[in-house]
């Protein structure tokens, strides 16, 4: 059981990290774009 279960953990963790990293980079990119488009008040 552990032989088949061990490789599943890193793969799912890596895919989750990739998804969270993409969301984080996308949110940071959108915030930077919005901040640069806002006029100085």
UniProtKB/TrEMBL annotation:
Highest taxon, organism lineage: Eukaryota
Name recorded for this polypeptide: Uncharacterized protein
Lineage per the UniProt record: Eukaryota, Metazoa, Ecdysozoa, Arthropoda, Hexapoda
